[in-house]
Amino acid sequence: MKKLIFIIVFLFSQWTITFADTSYFIDFTKVLNSSKPGAEAQKKLKQRIESDTKRFSKIESSLRKQESEIIAQKAALAPEEYQKKVKSLREKVSKLQKDKKDSFKNIAKSRNDAKKALLEAVNPIIKKYMDENKIRIVMNKQGVILGDSKLEITDQIISIINKEVSSLKIQ
Questions:
Q1: Residue 86 CA, distance from chain mean position
Q2: Cα–Cα nearest to 168, from 51, 31, 50
């Protein structure tokens, strides 16, 4: 009985040592934000957001101006004409809100597509790195509670990505 327990404990300890020696982790968030293609994609998306925000701000100020003009003309206009102008303004505001929603929805889709494209480009790089360095498993850093910083391969992967992936296409 003692021999059986000893053998089980010995085999289990050998298995965990082997497994622990080949487990590495990578911070995918850092890869997405710090690699050249990821940072470039983030910059393009940020510029697109700023551009759309400026465009919508101009339209909003124009609509506010139209609103104040309509309010100022209320007494001079016939009730039907006033209602017609108010309805027209409401339609413009509704269209603006829809355009804003669609714009930001498209930007979010572009961001997800860029993230997906970068991850698709990263997977073969990680696989090649694993083969070259005889690594059996790479885990996402978010799933690691504690780990030796020597087991993190994020910076090595980022440097390889910067060399091999030039840029991402963003729609």
A1: 40
A2: 31
